[in-house]
Structure formats: structure tokens, C-alpha cells
């Protein structure tokens, strides 16, 4: 069904394939940039991935201004402000973010601070508040899940308030996304599973929430089908470069889908669990996804039912509610499989969340902006009930 | 019938028509926003669930609702255990919820569509702390539940509330007190 009104926007140039990173200096030149601020984290340095980027610059006249490797697991307002100051001090003219969602979001956050000429990222929280064009940004994801390389969202952790805050703007899209299978080859099995479930959650929520539209449905479908084909393969065998590139593309397609269609209650709960007890985002999404689908079945049975086909199930001419239950079972089966292969936790208890934190998570979840896009309303008691079931 | 349609077409072709149409829309939205501002005040004094919701808000939290780019806007503030309608305009709000244009706001003001739907259709933007905006959104839903007749609530809210006898009494009181509150604010502004 065509919605009464929708918008779709994705201005990101995509470079996907073997040795794609080698094209970064050429693309910088095309954008008129000379000196890059590379934003990454210690994990990327330790895995030697930054050397792939350095090699790309070695035979080029483009420069690396600085390699900022202090990105924390949850991108924070303090770190974003620090990076912005450094960017200006070193007269860099573009960001190259190499890492997972945190590195990419840190670069996006610092880009806001630099371009808007402010001193604190928190002054610009909200949706579509950013007015100035941002500096060019090249995103090189080293995990396949966040989709941040093609999204207009940056999630920054507010250290003072213990909250994850969302910044949403069309200006936040990176100029270029670089998918190179070499960059995800070293991701451990459990993280591959968690980030893959993150991508699947993006695609499924984009496909089932109230801002869905026909263009993003295409991306969401493609993402779900790629996850079905490659997630278990990439988790079982990290050096399977076809599976790695497949998952990188799944993550990117899901990113395009959810950047326009947005996400729902699964993300509200995951953001809250991340803020309250630092539960990694991919693991949180993996845990909450089946419960979120069950919660929404009564309102959007048809959309949820259709997903079973994308996940490889047969369409048995059942009623939408029954077929939607098949989708939930398939997601649960996928989680069990990933749990067996990689040890991915599929209950909050197994992920180390203390039971006494559930009320705080529920309280934070109902204040998360993603909830606006969920098809069904969720109040505090209902959020707590979902959390208890997922515990 | 054809002659009426022709007359409408001719009227719409007149040079002053777009300005007149916009003036009418603006005036309608301005009146509805004033009613809404008064409704926030009245409901906040009467509905226990509203009081529960704002009990954690810091005193003096200001929020605005309005329409880009020339208004109208209203600003409200939490004071004590109730909401005060400060008046028209943007009076240093901490959180603002803006419709992108008059056409995006009118279906919501007529009870044909919920703000969640307009948000999903990219017809609204928010400025300020997003978690505070969600709190404002929840109290706005409570106000809508008391303001709109039951038959319209399925358009306005994702889930239609089931009111008990006490809440129905509160709803009746809201209707009774709304007009004097609106007139008082209209006179003041």
C-alpha cells in the first residue's frame, strides 16, 4: 500500500567491493579535500585495519592530518567535543571514520560541532535542527550492522545524564560509504552475530513501522534476504569474504531503509538498555526483536507476515496473524542458531543485565524518540512487561 | 452543479485567493492552538494521569507548539503541579514541536489525523531534548484524549483510551471549564 505521504533521501555514494578502501584518496581529491581527520578506535588499530587505510594514502598526495583513536564503545558528548577542537586545531578539511557505529557517530557528532561553530554537541539535539552544510565525511564501517555509513542519525551518549541522545538531520549523511570486505574480516564470531542482528532489526523495523514507504521496503527486503543468506555463514567462518561483503551490503541496505523509515520499540528498548547498563546495541536488538514483533503483531500482521518469506520460509496461505507468528518463530530459531555458533546471548539475564535495572530501562525506553514510529503505543507498564519476558 | 464548480474555479483563480486562503488557515490554526493551550491548563488541573506524568518534570520547563515558518505558536510552562499557558508566540521554550506548514497542522487540529501520523509523514520537527519531547508528546496525548470526542480518538491516538466513570466526569468538567479558560486567554492576549 502506498502511504498518503512519504519522503526518501539518500545522497551517499557507495563504493562496495574488494580493495574499495584504496579509492579513498581519489574520492577526497574529487571532493576538493586535502587533509583527513581519521576517526577510529583502539580495536581497529589493534586489528591492524588502520594500516589498510594508511596504505591507501601512501601513494597519494592527500594527507592524513591525525588518527584519532580514542573513540569509546558508546560515542560520548565529551569525546565529540574534544575531536571537534582537534579537527579545527589541525586544519583538517574532511573526516574519514573507520570503525563501528561509535566511530562513525563520533565523527558525525564532531562534524556537527565544527560546521555549526558551536562548542557543545548537546546544544544541537533534536530533529532537523542542523542548518549548515557539514564537512565531507567518508565512512568506512568495520562491522556490518549499524548502517551508520548511510544514515542521517548520530547517537551520542550523554555522560552527565546517562542517556543515549539522537541527532537527526539530512545534513548528517556521509558523502561516501566504503564497503571493503577486508575491513570486517577480523570481527569475532559473536560480534558478527550481534551486528548482523542489528542490521536485521533495522530492516525489520523499517518494514513494519509507521513511516514505512515503498522505496525503503525494497531496501529492507533486500537486506533481510542478504541476512538470511549470509549471517550464519559469516558468523561460522569469518574469512568467507563473500559472506562478509554480503553482510556489509545487508547492513548498508538496512541503513538506507531505516534512515528514512525509522525504527520502533525494539530500538527504544535497546537504546534504553544501552544507556542504563551499557548493553551492546546489537545484542540488545537481537534480544528484543522477537518480543517487539510479537508486541506489534495485532496492529501490523501483514507486514510481519511478509517477512517470513524473506527469511526463507514458505507462504502457506495462512491468516496474516498466523504467518506473522511464523516470522517470530523464524527469528527465534535464527537467534538460537547464532547462540549455538557464537555464544550470542538471547536473554537479558545471559547478557549480564541485573533484574533490578529493568524499571530504569523501561522508564528510559518510553522516552526514546524511536517509539513515535512504533505501530503500537507502549507505556511504562507494557515496556516493563516486555523486558521481564526478555529477561 | 457545473456552474458552481466553474464559480469555484474562477474564485480560486483570483489574484488575492492564495493570500485569503492562507489567512483563513492561519486564523483557524491560531484559534485551535489557543484552545489547545487552554486545554493543557484545564486538563493538567483535573486529570490525575496528567499530574503523574508531569510530576517528574522540573519546575519552569517550557515547551512550544506551533507552525513554521510564520506561526502561530503557543508556549506553555510547568508551574507547580500544573501547566500554565503563557500565551501566543515563542517565549524561550526549551522544547519546540513544529508543524512544517499550515497544511500539515490542519488535519491534526480537525481531529482527522494524529500528530504521530504527521510526524511519520515528515510533517513535523522537534527542537530540543528528545526524551523531554517524548514526555511532552505523552501529555499532549492525554490532553487530546480529554479534548476530542470519543468517536474521533481513533484518528488522533494510536490507542483509544477506555475512560472509567471518574475520567468521564473529568472530561465533562474539562468541556465546561474550557470555554471560560479560552476566553480569559483570548482577552489577555
Would you mind describing this structure in some detail?
The complex is a heterodimer of chains A (391) and B (189). Chain A is α/β, with parallel strands linked by helices and 391 residues long. Chain A folds into two domains: 171 residues, Rossmann fold (3-Layer(aba) Sandwich); 202 residues, Dehydroquinate synthase-like, alpha domain (Up-down Bundle). Chain A has 14 helices and nine strands. In chain A, the strands form two sheets. In chain A, strands 1-9-6-4-2-3 form a six-stranded parallel beta sheet, with helices on both faces. In chain A, strands 5-8-7 form a three-stranded mixed beta sheet. In chain A, helix 9 packs across helix 13. Chain A is globular, with a radius of gyration of 20 Å. The mean pLDDT of chain A is 92. Chain B has one domain: Nonspecific Lipid-transfer Protein, Chain A (2-Layer Sandwich). Helices cover 59% and strands 15% of the residues of chain B. Chain B contains eight helices and five strands. In chain B, strands 3-2-1-4-5 form a five-stranded mixed beta sheet. In chain B, strand 2 and strand 3 form a beta hairpin. The model of chain B has no long low-confidence stretch (mean pLDDT 90). Chains A and B meet through strand 5 and strand 8 of A and helix 5, strand 5 and helix 6 of B.
Amino acid at each position: 500500500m502506498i502511504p498518503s505521504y512519504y519522503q526518501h533521501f539518500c545522497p551517499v555514494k557507495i563504493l562496495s567491493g574488494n580493495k574499495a578502501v584504496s579509492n579513498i584518496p581519489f574520492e577526497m581529491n574529487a571532493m576538493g579535500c586535502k587533509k583527513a581527520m581519521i576517526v577510529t578506535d583502539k580495536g581497529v588499530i589493534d586489528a591492524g585495519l588502520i594500516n589498510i587505510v594508511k596504505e591507501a594514502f601512501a601513494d597519494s598526495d592527500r594527507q592524513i592530518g591525525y588518527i584519532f583513536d580514542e573513540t569509546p564503545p558508546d560515542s560520548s558528548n565529551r569525546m565529540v567535543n574534544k575531536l571537534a577542537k582537534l579537527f579545527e586545531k589541525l586544519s583538517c578539511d574532511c573526516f574519514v571514520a573507520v570503525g563501528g557505529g561509535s566511530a562513525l557517530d563520533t565523527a558525525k557528532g564532531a562534524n556537527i560541532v565544527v560546521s555549526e561553530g558551536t562548542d557543545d554537541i548537546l546544544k544541537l539535539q533534536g530533529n532537523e535542527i542542523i542548518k549548515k552544510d557539514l564537512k565531507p565525511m567518508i565512512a568506512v564501517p568495520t562491522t556490518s550492522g549499524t548502517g551508520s555509513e548511510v544514515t542521517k542519525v548520530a547517537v551520542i551518549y550523554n555522560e552527565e545524564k546517562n542517556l543515549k541522545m539522537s541527532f537527526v538531520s539530512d545534513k548528517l549523511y556521509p558523502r561516501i560509504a566504503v564497503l571493503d570486505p577486508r575491513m570486517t574480516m577480523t570481527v569475532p564470531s559473536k560480534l558478527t552475530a550481534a551486528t548482523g542482528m542489528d542490521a536485521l532489526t533495522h530492516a525489520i523495523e523499517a518494514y513494519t513501522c509507521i513511516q514505512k514507504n515503498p522505496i525503503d521496503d525494497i531496501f529492507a527486503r533486500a537486506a533481510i534476504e542478504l541476512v538470511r543468506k549470509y549471517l550464519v555463514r559469516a558468523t561460522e567462518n569469518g574469512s568467507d569474504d563473500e559472506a562478509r561483503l554480503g553482510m556489509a551490503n545487508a547492513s548498508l541496505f538496512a541503513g538506507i531503509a531505516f534512515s528514512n523509515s525509522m525504527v520502533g520499540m525494539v530500538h527504544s528498548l535497546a537504546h534504553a538498555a544501552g544507556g542504563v547498563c551499557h548493553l551492546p546495541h546489537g545484542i540488545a536488538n537481537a534480544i528484543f526483536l522477537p518480543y517487539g514483533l510479537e508486541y506489534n503483531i495485532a496492529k501490523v500482521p501483514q507486514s510481519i507476515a511478509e517477512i517470513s518469506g524473506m527469511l526463507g520460509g514458505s507462504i502457506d496461505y495462512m491468516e496474516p496473524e498466523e504467518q506473522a507468528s511464523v516470522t517470530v518463530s523464524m527469528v527465534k530459531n535464527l537467534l538460537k542458531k547464532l547462540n549455538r555458533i557464537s555464544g550470542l546471548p538471547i536473554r537479558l539475564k545471559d547478557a549480564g543485565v541485573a533484574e533490578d535495572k529493568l524499571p530504569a530501562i523501561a522508564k528510559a525506553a518510553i522516552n526514546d524518540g524511536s517509539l513515535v514510529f512504533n505501530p503500537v503505543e507502549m507505556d511504562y507498564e507494557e515496556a516493563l512487561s516486555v523486558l521481564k519476558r526478555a529477561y | 452543479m457545473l456552474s458552481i464548480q466553474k464559480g469555484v474555479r474562477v474564485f480560486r483563480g483570483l489574484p488575492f485567493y492564495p493570500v485569503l486562503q492562507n489567512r483563513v488557515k492561519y486564523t483557524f490554526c491560531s484559534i485551535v492552538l489557543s484552545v489547545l493551550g487552554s486545554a493543557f491548563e484545564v486538563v493538567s488541573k483535573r486529570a490525575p494521569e496528567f499530574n503523574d506524568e508531569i510530576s517528574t518534570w522540573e519546575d519552569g520547563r517550557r515547551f512550544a507548539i506551533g507552525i513554521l515558518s510564520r506561526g502561530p505558536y503557543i508556549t506553555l510552562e510547568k508551574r507547580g503541579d500544573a501547566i500554565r499557558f503563557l500565551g501566543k508566540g515563542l517565549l524561550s521554550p526549551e522544547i519546540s514541536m513544529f508543524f512544517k506548514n499550515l497544511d500539515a497542522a490542519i488535519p491534526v487540529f480537525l481531529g482527522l489525523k494524529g500528530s504521530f501520523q504527521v510526524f511519520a509523514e515528515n510533517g513535523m520537527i522537534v527542537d530540543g531534548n528528545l526524551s523531554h519531547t517524548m514526555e511532552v508528546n505523552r501529555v499532549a496525548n492525554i490532553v487530546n484524549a480529554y479534548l476530542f470526542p470519543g468517536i474521533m480518538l481513533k484518528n488522533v491516538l494510536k490507542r483509544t483510551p477506555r475512560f472509567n466513570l471518574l475520567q468521564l466526569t473529568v472530561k465533562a468538567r474539562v468541556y465546561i471549564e474550557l470555554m471560560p479558560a479560552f476566553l480569559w486567554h483570548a482577552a489577555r492576549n
